[in-house]
Structure formats: C-alpha cells, structure tokens
Amino acid sequence: MSTPSLSPLRLPARTGWVLLGALLAGGLAWALRSLLVEPPEVAAACAAAPWAPGPCLLRALAVEALLQQRIGWLALGLALLGLRWRALQAPAAACAAGGLMLYAADPSAPALLLALLASLGGSSSGSPRASSPSA
C-alpha cells in the first residue's frame, strides 16, 4: 500500500492577489496606527486643529474609521457583496486587514475570511481534478 504524497498548497492566482493586497493594506494601517494614531505627542499636536491638512487629517480620518468599528463593518459589507461581485473581494480583504490593525477585529476578521474564501471559489480551471487510484 502506498502512502499519499503531500502536494504543496496551490492557491488560485486571484486569491494570491487578494491576499497580497490584504497584507499590504494591513501593513499600511499598522504604520498609520503606530505613527499617527497612538503616539501621544501627535495627539497633542493635532488637538487644536484635528482636521488640518497633512498628518492631522490622516490621523482624524483613521480615528473616525475606528470609532464604532466603522472600517470593519464596511469590510464586512464589501465581503458580503463580494460573494456576488468578484471585483469587491480585493477591496473587502484590504479593508478588513486595515480594520484588524485599527481595532475593529470583531467585524473585520470574518470579513477577511469571507473575502479570501470567496476568492478561492470560481477559479477558471473548471471542475476539480479527479484523483486516479494508485496501483
């Protein structure tokens, strides 16, 4: 009796691009959080004019996005719409990854999983390959 061979994980190209976009968006959101949202000196500098152009405006937009987990709920809505329209899967994954970095984990985690799972389905390869019995 032969043992089955383990093949490497092969993702559809679309899923790879969606995952790469999510990783890049998550990295940008982490940088935004680390450089503009959390430092107390930035908060003090932007206290007088939070909507002033430049870093204070970016900080104010990030804070607004994380209030009531807005970015996560947006990601979840996009992921649900991405089940029907494939073009929304990558923006949903990117928004969800950003939401994970901006304190909106409750709606962002299922949104990221849903967007990635949706990008797995409907690959252009057609039907799944049938495995042949080994002799």
Average predicted confidence as pLDDT: 83
Return Rg in Å. Answer: 20 Å
Q: How would you describe the shape?
A: elongated
The percent of residues in helical segments reads: 55-70%
Characterize the largest beta sheet: strand count, sense, and whether it forms a barrel.
Answer: none
First-residue to last-residue Cα separation: 9 Å
Number of domains: 1
Oligomer status: single chain
- How much of the sequence lies in strands comes to under 5%
- Computed structural class: mainly alpha
Number of strands: 0
What's the helix count?
6
Please trace the helix and strand order, writing H or E for each element: HHHHHH
Low-confidence stretches: 123-132
Topology:
Layout: H1 13-37, H2 40-46, H3 55-66, H4 70-82, H5 89-101, H6 105-120
Helix pairs in contact: 1-3, 1-5, 1-6, 4-5, 4-6, 5-6
Task: Give a brief description.
The chain is mainly alpha-helical and 135 residues long. The chain has helices at residues 13-37, 40-46, 55-66, 70-82, 89-101, 105-120.
Provide structural commentary:
33% of the residues are buried. It is built from 6 helices and no strands. It is elongated and about 70 Å long. The protein starts with 12 loop residues before the first helix and ends in a 15-residue tail after the last helix. Helix 1 (13-37) packs antiparallel against helix 6 and helix 4 (70-82) packs parallel to helix 6 (105-120). Residues 123-132 have low confidence and may be disordered. By secondary structure, the protein is mostly helical. The chain has one domain.
